[in-house]
Protein backbone atom coordinates (compact mmCIF):
# COMPACT_ATOMS: atom_id res chain seq x y z
CA UNK A 1 0.00 0.00 0.00
CA UNK A 2 1.31 3.46 -0.89
CA UNK A 3 2.26 5.87 1.87
CA UNK A 4 0.31 9.17 2.12
CA UNK A 5 3.00 11.27 0.45
CA UNK A 6 3.15 8.92 -2.54
CA UNK A 7 -0.63 9.02 -2.83
CA UNK A 8 -0.57 12.81 -2.79
CA UNK A 9 2.05 12.92 -5.54
CA UNK A 10 -0.07 10.60 -7.66
CA UNK A 11 -3.18 12.70 -7.15
CA UNK A 12 -1.26 15.89 -7.93
CA UNK A 13 -0.24 14.38 -11.25
CA UNK A 14 -3.86 13.47 -11.99
CA UNK A 15 -5.00 17.00 -11.15
CA UNK A 16 -2.37 18.50 -13.43
CA UNK A 17 -3.34 16.19 -16.27
CA UNK A 18 -6.97 17.17 -15.85
CA UNK A 19 -6.09 20.86 -15.92
CA UNK A 20 -4.21 20.62 -19.22
CA UNK A 21 -6.09 17.78 -20.89
CA UNK A 22 -7.75 20.18 -23.30
CA UNK A 23 -4.34 21.55 -24.37
CA UNK A 24 -5.83 25.01 -24.07
CA UNK A 25 -3.49 27.99 -23.54
CA UNK A 26 -5.16 28.68 -20.19
CA UNK A 27 -4.63 25.13 -18.97
CA UNK A 28 -1.04 24.98 -20.16
CA UNK A 29 -0.24 28.33 -18.56
CA UNK A 30 -1.79 27.23 -15.25
CA UNK A 31 0.14 23.97 -15.09
CA UNK A 32 3.37 25.62 -16.12
CA UNK A 33 3.21 27.80 -13.00
CA UNK A 34 2.75 24.81 -10.68
CA UNK A 35 5.94 23.19 -9.46
CA UNK A 36 4.95 21.78 -6.02
CA UNK A 37 1.82 20.78 -4.17
CA UNK A 38 1.91 24.16 -2.43
CA UNK A 39 1.15 25.84 -5.76
CA UNK A 40 -2.24 24.12 -6.04
CA UNK A 41 -5.33 26.06 -5.00
CA UNK A 42 -7.48 24.98 -2.06
CA UNK A 43 -10.11 23.28 -4.22
CA UNK A 44 -7.48 21.05 -5.83
CA UNK A 45 -5.94 20.23 -2.47
CA UNK A 46 -9.28 19.28 -0.95
CA UNK A 47 -10.04 17.11 -3.96
CA UNK A 48 -6.70 15.34 -3.54
CA UNK A 49 -7.04 14.81 0.20
CA UNK A 50 -10.43 13.13 -0.12
CA UNK A 51 -8.54 10.10 -1.44
CA UNK A 52 -6.63 9.80 1.83
CA UNK A 53 -7.87 7.84 4.81
CA UNK A 54 -8.31 9.64 8.12
CA UNK A 55 -5.10 8.06 9.39
CA UNK A 56 -3.25 9.14 6.25
CA UNK A 57 -4.47 12.70 6.79
CA UNK A 58 -3.07 12.59 10.33
CA UNK A 59 0.25 11.35 8.96
CA UNK A 60 0.46 14.39 6.67
CA UNK A 61 0.26 16.87 9.56
CA UNK A 62 3.58 18.66 9.98
CA UNK A 63 5.05 17.43 6.68
CA UNK A 64 4.51 20.67 4.72
CA UNK A 65 3.18 23.95 6.08
CA UNK A 66 0.19 25.29 7.99
CA UNK A 67 -1.93 25.53 4.83
CA UNK A 68 -1.53 21.82 4.11
CA UNK A 69 -2.19 21.09 7.77
CA UNK A 70 -5.48 22.99 7.48
CA UNK A 71 -6.48 20.89 4.48
CA UNK A 72 -5.55 17.70 6.34
CA UNK A 73 -7.65 18.79 9.32
CA UNK A 74 -10.55 19.49 6.97
CA UNK A 75 -10.26 15.92 5.68
CA UNK A 76 -10.19 14.60 9.25
CA UNK A 77 -13.32 16.61 10.02
CA UNK A 78 -15.15 14.56 7.38
CA UNK A 79 -15.38 11.79 9.99
CA UNK A 80 -18.77 12.51 11.56
CA UNK A 81 -19.83 9.11 12.87
CA UNK A 82 -17.58 6.84 14.91
CA UNK A 83 -18.84 3.39 15.90
CA UNK A 84 -16.66 0.56 17.14
CA UNK A 85 -16.37 -2.42 19.45
CA UNK A 86 -13.62 -2.65 22.03
CA UNK A 87 -12.78 -6.05 20.62
CA UNK A 88 -11.56 -4.22 17.50
CA UNK A 89 -10.88 -0.63 18.59
CA UNK A 90 -9.49 2.00 16.21
CA UNK A 91 -5.75 2.54 16.34
CA UNK A 92 -5.67 6.33 16.54
CA UNK A 93 -3.33 7.95 19.03
CA UNK A 94 -4.55 9.85 22.06
CA UNK A 95 -4.20 13.32 20.50
CA UNK A 96 -5.81 12.07 17.29
CA UNK A 97 -8.91 10.89 19.18
CA UNK A 98 -9.20 14.35 20.73
CA UNK A 99 -9.15 16.02 17.31
CA UNK A 100 -11.66 13.52 15.93
CA UNK A 101 -13.99 14.14 18.86
CA UNK A 102 -14.29 17.83 18.01
CA UNK A 103 -16.19 17.09 14.79
CA UNK A 104 -18.25 13.99 15.56
CA UNK A 105 -22.03 13.98 15.25
CA UNK A 106 -22.49 10.49 16.68
CA UNK A 107 -20.46 8.13 18.86
CA UNK A 108 -21.21 4.46 19.41
CA UNK A 109 -19.03 2.26 21.63
CA UNK A 110 -19.82 -1.34 22.47
CA UNK A 111 -17.64 -2.87 25.15
CA UNK A 112 -18.38 -6.18 26.85
CA UNK A 113 -18.79 -7.23 30.45
CA UNK A 114 -15.70 -9.42 30.16
CA UNK A 115 -13.59 -6.44 29.07
CA UNK A 116 -12.31 -3.74 31.37
CA UNK A 117 -14.71 -0.81 31.74
CA UNK A 118 -11.66 1.41 31.98
CA UNK A 119 -10.94 0.75 28.31
CA UNK A 120 -14.25 2.14 27.07
CA UNK A 121 -14.04 5.01 29.55
CA UNK A 122 -10.60 5.87 28.17
CA UNK A 123 -11.98 6.28 24.64
CA UNK A 124 -15.05 8.16 25.79
CA UNK A 125 -13.00 10.63 27.79
CA UNK A 126 -10.82 11.35 24.78
CA UNK A 127 -13.80 11.81 22.47
CA UNK A 128 -16.17 13.62 24.82
CA UNK A 129 -14.25 15.24 27.64
CA UNK A 130 -11.72 17.48 25.91
CA UNK A 131 -13.98 20.49 26.34
CA UNK A 132 -17.32 21.71 27.60
CA UNK A 133 -20.60 20.79 25.94
CA UNK A 134 -20.67 24.23 24.33
CA UNK A 135 -17.54 23.33 22.37
CA UNK A 136 -19.18 20.22 20.90
CA UNK A 137 -22.48 21.40 19.41
CA UNK A 138 -22.25 18.83 16.60
CA UNK A 139 -22.51 15.70 18.75
CA UNK A 140 -26.16 14.70 19.01
CA UNK A 141 -26.15 10.89 19.15
CA UNK A 142 -24.48 8.82 21.87
CA UNK A 143 -24.61 5.04 22.27
CA UNK A 144 -22.77 3.13 24.99
CA UNK A 145 -23.33 -0.61 25.36
CA UNK A 146 -22.11 -3.30 27.73
CA UNK A 147 -20.14 -1.30 30.28
CA UNK A 148 -20.27 -1.12 34.06
CA UNK A 149 -21.48 2.44 34.46
CA UNK A 150 -20.07 4.45 37.36
CA UNK A 151 -19.52 8.07 38.42
CA UNK A 152 -16.67 8.50 35.93
CA UNK A 153 -18.99 7.58 33.07
CA UNK A 154 -21.60 10.00 34.38
CA UNK A 155 -19.08 12.84 34.47
CA UNK A 156 -18.00 12.03 30.93
CA UNK A 157 -21.56 11.93 29.53
CA UNK A 158 -22.49 15.15 31.33
CA UNK A 159 -19.93 16.97 29.18
CA UNK A 160 -22.10 16.50 26.11
CA UNK A 161 -25.59 15.46 27.20
CA UNK A 162 -27.11 18.95 26.91
CA UNK A 163 -26.81 18.63 23.11
CA UNK A 164 -27.73 14.95 22.79
CA UNK A 165 -30.93 14.06 20.93
CA UNK A 166 -30.45 10.28 20.82
CA UNK A 167 -29.16 8.47 23.91
CA UNK A 168 -28.79 4.69 24.16
CA UNK A 169 -27.36 3.38 27.44
CA UNK A 170 -28.53 -0.21 27.12
CA UNK A 171 -26.76 -2.99 29.01
CA UNK A 172 -24.80 -0.52 31.15
CA UNK A 173 -25.73 -1.82 34.64
CA UNK A 174 -27.32 1.54 35.40
CA UNK A 175 -29.15 2.48 38.56
CA UNK A 176 -31.32 5.53 39.13
CA UNK A 177 -28.67 7.39 41.09
CA UNK A 178 -26.33 7.29 38.10
CA UNK A 179 -28.98 7.99 35.48
CA UNK A 180 -30.78 10.87 37.21
CA UNK A 181 -28.21 13.69 36.67
CA UNK A 182 -27.90 12.70 33.01
CA UNK A 183 -31.63 12.91 32.38
CA UNK A 184 -31.92 16.19 34.28
CA UNK A 185 -29.53 17.87 31.83
CA UNK A 186 -30.73 16.20 28.63
CA UNK A 187 -32.76 19.20 27.52
CA UNK A 188 -32.79 18.30 23.80
CA UNK A 189 -33.34 14.57 24.15
CA UNK A 190 -35.77 12.99 21.68
CA UNK A 191 -35.01 9.26 21.95
CA UNK A 192 -33.94 7.33 25.05
CA UNK A 193 -33.10 3.61 25.14
CA UNK A 194 -32.41 1.77 28.40
CA UNK A 195 -32.70 -1.94 27.63
CA UNK A 196 -31.01 -4.50 29.85
CA UNK A 197 -30.48 -2.35 32.95
CA UNK A 198 -31.86 -4.63 35.62
CA UNK A 199 -31.08 -2.43 38.63
CA UNK A 200 -33.24 0.45 37.41
CA UNK A 201 -36.37 1.27 39.37
CA UNK A 202 -37.01 3.98 36.74
CA UNK A 203 -37.69 6.71 39.31
CA UNK A 204 -35.12 8.75 37.41
CA UNK A 205 -37.42 8.89 34.37
CA UNK A 206 -39.55 11.46 36.18
CA UNK A 207 -36.61 13.87 36.05
CA UNK A 208 -36.54 14.02 32.26
CA UNK A 209 -36.59 17.71 31.34
CA UNK A 210 -36.66 17.56 27.55
CA UNK A 211 -39.79 18.99 25.89
CA UNK A 212 -38.71 17.21 22.69
CA UNK A 213 -38.89 13.65 24.05
CA UNK A 214 -40.92 11.39 21.75
CA UNK A 215 -39.69 7.82 22.32
CA UNK A 216 -38.47 5.76 25.28
CA UNK A 217 -37.53 2.08 25.15
CA UNK A 218 -37.27 0.06 28.36
CA UNK A 219 -37.04 -3.49 29.60
CA UNK A 220 -39.24 -4.51 32.50
CA UNK A 221 -37.69 -5.92 35.67
CA UNK A 222 -38.95 -6.78 39.16
CA UNK A 223 -38.18 -3.27 40.46
CA UNK A 224 -39.51 -0.88 37.86
CA UNK A 225 -43.13 -1.81 37.12
CA UNK A 226 -44.82 0.85 39.26
CA UNK A 227 -42.60 3.71 38.09
CA UNK A 228 -42.85 2.71 34.42
CA UNK A 229 -46.64 2.68 34.57
CA UNK A 230 -46.60 6.05 36.33
CA UNK A 231 -44.30 7.50 33.66
CA UNK A 232 -46.56 6.22 30.87
CA UNK A 233 -49.64 7.73 32.52
CA UNK A 234 -47.95 11.11 32.99
CA UNK A 235 -46.45 11.27 29.48
CA UNK A 236 -49.29 10.37 27.15
CA UNK A 237 -47.62 12.21 24.25
CA UNK A 238 -44.46 10.11 24.48
CA UNK A 239 -44.22 6.77 22.69
CA UNK A 240 -42.94 4.10 25.09
CA UNK A 241 -41.86 0.57 24.18
CA UNK A 242 -41.73 -1.77 27.17
CA UNK A 243 -40.08 -5.15 26.73
CA UNK A 244 -40.85 -8.10 28.93
CA UNK A 245 -37.93 -9.56 30.91
CA UNK A 246 -35.40 -11.13 28.52
CA UNK A 247 -37.18 -9.25 25.70
CA UNK A 248 -39.40 -12.14 24.65
CA UNK A 249 -42.25 -9.74 23.89
CA UNK A 250 -43.04 -6.05 24.11
CA UNK A 251 -45.88 -3.57 24.22
CA UNK A 252 -46.01 0.03 23.07
CA UNK A 253 -47.86 2.98 24.54
CA UNK A 254 -48.43 6.52 23.35
CA UNK A 255 -49.82 8.38 20.34
CA UNK A 256 -48.48 5.90 17.76
CA UNK A 257 -49.76 2.78 19.52
CA UNK A 258 -52.73 2.23 17.22
CA UNK A 259 -50.56 2.50 14.11
CA UNK A 260 -48.34 -0.36 15.30
CA UNK A 261 -50.86 -2.34 17.28
CA UNK A 262 -50.64 -5.37 15.02
CA UNK A 263 -46.90 -5.67 15.61
CA UNK A 264 -47.07 -5.70 19.40
CA UNK A 265 -47.36 -8.50 21.88
CA UNK A 266 -48.58 -8.14 25.43
CA UNK A 267 -46.26 -8.59 28.38
Topology:
Elements: H1 4-20, H2 25-32, H3 42-49, H4 54-60, H5 66-76, E1 81-85, H6 94-101, E2 106-110, H7 117-128, E3 141-145, H8 151-158, E4 166-168, H9 176-184, E5 191-194, E6 215-219, H10 225-234, E7 239-243, E8 250-253
Parallel strand pairs: 1-2, 2-3, 3-4, 4-5, 5-6, 6-7
Antiparallel strand pairs: 7-8
Organism: Glossina pallidipes (Tsetse fly)
InterPro entries: LRR_dom_sf
Protein name: F-box domain-containing protein
Secondary structure: helix percent: 25-40%
Order of helices and strands: HHHHHEHEHEHEHEEHEE
Rg over CA atoms, rounded to whole Å, is 24 Å
Structural class: alpha/beta
Beta percentage is 5-15%
CATH architect. name of the largest domain: Alpha-Beta Horseshoe
What descriptive keywords fit this protein?
267 residues, alpha/beta, Leucine-rich repeat, LRR (right-handed beta-alpha superhelix), 13% strand, elongated, disordered C terminus, F-box domain-containing protein
How does this model look, in words?
With 267 residues, this protein is of the alpha/beta class. The chain folds into two domains: 35-78; 81-255, Ribonuclease Inhibitor (Leucine-rich repeat, LRR (right-handed beta-alpha superhelix), Alpha-Beta Horseshoe). Helices cover 37% and strands 13% of the residues. The protein has helices at 4-20, 25-32, 42-49, 54-60, 66-76, 94-101, 117-128, 151-158, 176-184, 225-234, and strands spanning 81-85, 106-110, 141-145, 166-168, 191-194, 215-219, 239-243, 250-253. The protein has an eight-stranded mixed sheet with strand order 1-2-3-4-5-6-7-8, covered by helices on one side. A hairpin with a 6-residue loop joins β7 (239-243) and β8 (250-253). The longest helix has 17 residues, at 4-20. The protein is elongated. The termini are far apart.
Amino acid sequence: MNDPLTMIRQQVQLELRAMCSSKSPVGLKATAAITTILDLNDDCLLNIFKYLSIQDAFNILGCFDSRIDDVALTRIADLKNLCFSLREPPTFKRWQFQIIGQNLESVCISAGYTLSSEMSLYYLQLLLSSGSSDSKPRLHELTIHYVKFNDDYVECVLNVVSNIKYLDLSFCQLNDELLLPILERAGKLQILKLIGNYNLECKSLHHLQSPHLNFVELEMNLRCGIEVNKFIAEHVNVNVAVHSPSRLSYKTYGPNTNENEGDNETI
